[in-house]
Request: fold
Amino acid sequence: MFFSLLDRSRTRSGFDDGSALRHTVERAVHAEEIGLHRFWVAEHHGVPGIASGAPAVLAAAVASRTSRIRVGSGGVMLPNHQPLVVAEQFLMLESLFPGRIDLGVGRSLGFTEPVRAALRSERTDTFEADIAELRSYLDGSGPVTARPAVPSPPVFVLATGAGLEVAARAGLPVVVGGPVLQRDDPLAVYRKHFRPTPSNPEPYVIVSLDVTIAADAADARRLAVPEAWAMARSRREGEFPALERASVIDESQWTPQTRSRIEASLASSILGTAGQVRPRLEEVVERTGANEIMASTSTYDRAELFDADVAFAQLAGVAG
Reply:
């Protein structure tokens, strides 16, 4: 059982966007030191609370500061990019950091209409065709030879709903999170329709979760509140904000609706002491058959975030 991290380069009140990116690189160095398997970065455009819009560039920065941990994208949103360009970017990364690069791809469009217009995004769903085209450039079978010509990094599909079938038909590993995990057998369709390939003879499942571990349950909840507060504010104000200090949030006025949204967000996370989190992760692994857990934990205080990462890494044998 592998344990990994997804870092979305969350901005923090009092720090500029450049700091968020440097914080991501520093967290990756720490993740390698504590023995985590992968460290992935994200792609979001025009979001005040997230600094990373170019995962290939940030992955290069992370890989240059580390030496063993796998580095990748969680993920590159194919509707925003030409498959050839994505192939070239990740073949270059693979050439520079051989055997350490992952390419996670997704299908999400920009969050707002102005962002979608700026990205020239179209609503036509060509995700499955885009994946096939991308893979043809990566493996050298396409009509154009993508350079540098090196072995392809592994491709993963960030999937919910129909995306699970796309991943299965393509014979690719899948990354799942969010509401789809609440189903009784969330990966049944993926496993039923999975088509083995030489590089992926069997289904492979990464489950992405918000996991926060602290010395006691109250501390874990406190660490999880800044992200839940940001989510609640985004629902109310239409804009995803930077993370705030827990003390600032405590002094804020919580409307009943805000409180309800925060509690719902916390309830969907896995948080508590190591002893409390362990059985919940075991249940997720048992229900989903996950091969890997990828934590998307974030909080304002970076020292406490690093401590939570250590506690998470120490649970790496939870289902193994």
